Amino acid sequence: MLAAWRIILEIYIVKENDTVDSIADRYGISPSSVIFDNQLIYPYPLAIGQALLLSVGAETSLKDPACVNGYAYPFIKGDVLEATLPYLSTLSVFSYGFTTKGELVPPQIDDMFMIQAAAAADVRPVLTLTPFGPDGKFSNYLINELVNSQTAIEQLNSNLLATLQEKGFQGVDIDFEYILPEDRVPFADFVAGVRDFLAPYGFQVSVALAPKTSDSQEGVLYQGKDYGLLGKAADSVLLMTYEWGYTYGPPMAVAPANKVREVVEYAVTRIEPGKIDLGIPNYGYDWTLPYIRGTSAARTIGNQEAVQIAIDAGAEIQFDEVAMSPFFRYEKNGELHEVWFEDVRSYKEKFTLIPEYGLRGMGYWQIMRFFRPNWLLLEDTFQIRKDGY
Questions:
Q1: Mapped to the 3 state alphabet, what secondary structure does the chain carry?
Q2: In a domain, 86, yes or no
Q3: Of all residues in the chain, what percent carry a pLDDT higher than 70?
Q4: In a domain? residue 369
Q5: Which pairing describes strands 90-98 and 382-384: parallel, antiparallel, or unpaired?
Q6: Residue 39 lies in a domain
Q7: Does 303 reside within a domain?
Q8: Do 49 and 313 touch, CB atoms closer than 8 A?
Q9: What is the maximal distance between C-alpha atoms in the chain?
Q10: Tens digit of pLDDT for each residue in 3-21?
């Protein structure tokens, strides 16, 4: 536990006839603080059911330390990156690919500005390694070819080291998905081998894990990921605890609190809790109803955008007490929509799992949109570790 200055924050749920001025008067705070903290847009209308974060005072307090990682593409806007870096321990640049022969494939857009900005902000830049095929999707063929070829692995390790040293990265995150069941052990051996190779040079290795709840969980996302083996192989792991609600699935919370908890409860039985980062989504989805499997495709939206949609449509934001997530329905151009997103209530619920289970910290997918209420709540809750590990 580390001592730190703490702003007292309170979550307020907007009621009918509330205004920024009336809420500020009620709490004895400035309207400008309500506007700034919640990224309200002029003329500052509010949605019934909207969760606002209010800075109502300050005191000294003890806060749990936590590592905070954010994933970002090289096309992130400079102002968004600059605003987010103060809240991060590590920045994962998404992403680097590879060939079957172990050659490293850099992003199409130059990422040096991200690496330099991270270093200037005392944030560790991390190279994210992904097995994307020519179609831009995860390829289990690429994975299979790599993890079963010692020659390709040695070549990739050599290329990783050269790139890490040349560009100033300080670690590697291995994000492989759709691993074949027969590659479960070879993949874990691969992660361990990368870690062993890079460790003497001062680099650490993390691995992303699909959100399993049992050893025997079936499905293309799960069978190739062995929590026990990978927990031992890597320096840290990220639980990808999001995408229950996803582009092609039915409308539901992206990261339902009850489902996230089930994953954490399983993970800590297989992996040292101090190695585990909790995955947190920084986005929501907008579905057109009725949902038709195989046809429907939700639109990805930001959390701030979701609230603005509710305001424009005159929709009341609801809150699911099981999923601990906000949602609402609205009508536009004769079509009914359903929106699920994240707000300070859903983030607060996820944050409680970190000290409860003794987790290392959290990782955000992704930080391409800046949502200030989340970062203020995080800073109020945790002492952000700047050593990165």
A1: CEEEEEEEEEEEECCCCCCHHHHHHHHCCCHHHHHHHCCCCCCCCCCCCCEEEEEEEEEEEEEEEEEEEEEECCCCCHHHHHHHHHHCCEEEEEEEEECCCCCEECCCCCCHHHHHHHHHCCCEEEEEECCECCCCCECHHHHHHHHCCHHHHHHHHHHHHHHHHHHCCCEEEECCCCCCHHHHHHHHHHHHHHHHHHHHHCCEEEEEECCCCCCCCCCCCCCCCCHHHHHHHCCEEEECCCCCCCCCCCCCCCCCHHHHHHHHHHHHHHCCHHHEEEEEECCEEEEEECCCCCCCCCEEECHHHHHHHHHHHCCCCEEECCCCEEEEEEEECCEEEEEECCCHHHHHHHHHHHHHHCCCEEEEECCCCCCHHHHHHHHHHEEECCCCC
A2: yes
A3: 97
A4: yes
A5: unpaired
A6: no
A7: no
A8: no
A9: 68
A10: 445 567 899 999 999 999 9
pLDDT band at residue 60 using 50, 70 and 90 as cut-offs: low
> Rounded to an integer, what distance in angstroms lies between the CA atom of residue 343 and that of residue 46?
14
Q: Which residues contact 240 (CB under 8 A, 6 or more apart)?
A: 208, 209, 210, 211, 279, 365
For residues 57 and 52, what is the distance between their CA atoms, to the nearest angstrom? Answer: 15
How many angstroms separate the CA atoms of 171 and 129, rounded? 11
Instruction: Tell me the C-alpha distance between 170 and 237, whole Å.
Output: 16
Question: For the domain that residue 377 is a member of, what is the CATH number?
Answer: 3.20.20.80
Query: pLDDT digits over 276-302, tens only?
Result: 999 999 999 999 999 999 999 999 999
The mean of the pLDDT values for the chain is: 96
* Interior angle at CA 306, CA 300 and CA 311, nearest 5: 150
Q: How many domains does the chain fold into?
A: 1
- Residue found under tokens 């607060």: 348
- AA identity, residue 248: Y
pTM of the model: 0.96
At 134, the pLDDT band (50, 70, 90 cuts) reads: confident
**Helical axes 344-357 vs 257-270, angle rounded to 10°:** 20
What is the domain extent for residue 375? 64-282+343-384
**What is the CB neighbour count within 10 angstroms for residue 90?**
28
